[in-house]
Amino acid sequence: MARAIANYIILFLLLVLAQVLIFNHILLFGVAAPVVFIYFVIRLGMSVRFNTLITIAFLMGVCVDICSDTPGMNTLACTVMAAVKKPVLLAYTQRDEGFEEITPCISSLGIWIYSKYMITMTLIYCLLYFCIEFFAVAAFWQVMLMTMASTLLSYVLLLGIDGLIMRKRSGLA
What we know:
The structure is a single chain. By secondary structure, the protein is mostly helical. The chain is 70% helix and 0% strand. The chain has helices spanning 2-21, 39-43, 50-68, 73-83, 85-92, 106-109, 111-134, 140-169.
């Protein structure tokens, strides 16, 4: 148990550092901003209590906001994303006895369900973030373009991160 907690703490720190030091400085074609730190919230197991999940998401958003000089935008988007995590996953899966023991990943959900879940969660985060950033009806199409492009780019990066983590856990790396 202590080893699992240590692994989660290391993953938390690595994702926040990667977001702040690398991915915050990338804007592909002027519209696609990669977001990788949300992988931590997306990947947490369904057995994590709601209050704990919201607190973790809040702390992760605050860490990125402090280092990125974005006043609460990541915090709000990440916290809302965490709040809808369970209903989103329930929309794509059947609730059975083992639902609370699921850790969302390709091996537990399958590529199709996991992809839909991950895209939806990333879309929720990006839409909220860009709506807060622009906060204007006149920028509707720009918000939609940035949301879709960032969601797609982030999804591809998150699948890559998931592949690296699963490969390491299975002992292939």
